[in-house]
Amino acid sequence: HHPEETLVLVKPDGVRRRLTGEIIARIERKGYEIVDLRMFTPSRDLLVKHYEEHEGKPFFEPLVEFMGSGPVVALRVGGSRVVEGFRSLAGATEPTTAAPGTIRGDFGRDWGEGVQKNLVHGSDSTLSAERELKLWFG
Ligand code: DAT
Ligand code: MG
Fold it and tell me: Which residues are annotated as active site (predicted)?
């Protein structure tokens, strides 16, 4: 089995903008394996648990609402040091200033609604990955 796995989400903006294939292609081109994949509109309950570290912050409610606004594609992705590696493929949180060559840098910008529409989520540590994979894949 893989030494490491991470949770990737193609967020509702990524799905709506038909970028799911492009994002999966970049993950595979890097040599990571798509181990499992689901597409559905996440419940508020799941999203509140997923983003529990941000509860109470001013962007929490808009974030949960946006993430539940349509289908997302959840991916279990495996590979050596994939947690850090996918964060690097995704780029910085703010799409406007994310580096070119990254998913957020190449396809994202500020659409007048702050940084929430940044196309993808990737777990930020192996501990988060374990917790988040349990939430999204059981
Ligand atoms: P990341 O997705 O890069 O791990 P994060 O965990 O700090 O970033 O935040 C989770 C999501 O919340 C992020 O993808 C977009 C949104 N977000 C973060 N900071 C924000 C802010 N200051 N204003 C609005 N939305 C924000
Ligand atoms: Mg995060």
Answer: 121 (pros-phosphohistidine intermediate)
Residue nearest to atom 7 of ligand 1 (CA): 93
Residue 59, amino acid: F
List of residues 6+ apart from 57 with CB closer than 8 A: none
The ipTM is 0.97
Quote the ligand 1 centre to 137 CA distance (angstroms). Answer: 22
pTM (predicted TM-score): 0.97
Fold of 5-137: Alpha-Beta Plaits (3.30.70)
Is the pLDDT at 112 greater than 90, yes or no? no
Question: Residues within the annotated binding site for ATP?
Answer: 11, 59, 87, 93, 104, 118
Ion ligand 2 contact residues with beta carbon within 5 A? 124
- Contact (Cβ atoms closer than 8 angstroms) between residue 118 and residue 63: no
If one counts every other C-beta atom within 10 angstroms of the C-beta of residue 66, the result is 17
Dihedral through CA 46, CA 73, CA 117, CA 48, nearest 10?
Answer: 0
Do the beta carbons of residue 89 and residue 119 sit within 8 Å? no
- Using alpha carbons, select from 29, 57, 56, 54 the residue that is nearest to residue 121: 54
